[in-house]
Amino acid sequence: MASDSNHALASSTGSLHLTLTHHGRPITLAFSDDATLADLSEKVSTDLSVPPSNQKFLITPKLGLQKPPFKDPTIPLVNLVSKKVNLMGSTTEEVSSLNASISAAAAPRRQGPIKAATPARTRDHRRIQEEAQYTFHTLRPLPYLPNPERSLRFLERLRDDAGIKAAMRTHKFSVPLLTEMDPAMHTTQESRTLGLNRNQGEVIELRLRTDAYDGYRDYKTIRNTLCHELAHNVWGPHDRTFWNLCHQIEKEVDRDDWRAGGRSVGNQEYYEPSEEEVYDHGGWTGGEFVLGGGGGGETVVSSAGGSVSAGSLSRREILAKAAEERMKRTRQAEGESKDSGSGQA
């Protein structure tokens, strides 16, 4: 039985075996001959501890993304013989661990008084402290997609980009959470959404991966999408005021990116998405941010409805985590200033 392809085998007892991929690992499950897509969801919940609310099945070709409640839960599993099935979703244990880390970050902590930084002659300490304040305070990849550590490194590269850091200081942008976007949740036959901005910079999502999850998009393309989303921190609608600010930020990022010599790739002034790609649908407000959720109704979970889906981040939790990271960065900046000052002759 090949481990990298999904197929079904009728055994002597008449049972059906289906192999799917979860977190990059092939898993074979046994079913009756008349099993359906609904049976697959139940089996994944009981055997793999991935509840239906967390399940997403990427079935290629043709069927695409399927998630409970299915439009057609009666699809026979035998029809998946020649298709690839990729299960995306966090287990109950993974969700509990994530919620525990969020709760710990949101808990109030006693902070001592901030001591004044020792002046030094050779370092720009004002810039160091501004970079600790005007930045992306929390970076979060999607844990249920392959190689989340690579996505984290990509987000770190954006945060530490010299041009982005300069633009953040100039416009005094402080973003509590920068996270990656799930391509499957923002891809239709008509368009691909490149980024989202919630509540004027409370959360920014970026489309880092290709549609097949097996690679990453061009860095300069993603960086220009980030410039677009940062402009939504100030202005929501896509009117002339917004585009003037967006192109101003793009120019500033290119100018201050000393690693690229202050020149944009290909000598193009701006990046423009293709007809199948859209930056976003403007800035949006309200609701809760769901880790790995989609735009519009999928990302916004109404607080009026009571409970919020597992793995979600409330506004209080996002801001509490950002405050903790901001305080940590401030202390580090002051420590660097003090060490530099004590080293002067």
TrEMBL record:
- WLM domain: from which residue to which, for each copy? 127-328
What top-level branch of life does the organism fall under? Eukaryota
Against PROSITE patterns, the record matches this protein to: WLM
Which InterPro entries does UniProt cross-reference here?
Ubiquitin-like_domsf, WLM_dom
Q: Which organism is it from?
A: Massariosphaeria phaeospora
- Protein name per the record: Zinc metallo protein-like proteinase
Q: What Pfam families does this protein's entry cite?
A: WLM
Q: Which GO terms describe its molecular function?
A: proteasome binding
Provide the residue span(s) of the region labelled Disordered: 323-345
Composition bias, kind Basic and acidic residues: at what positions?
Answer: 323-339
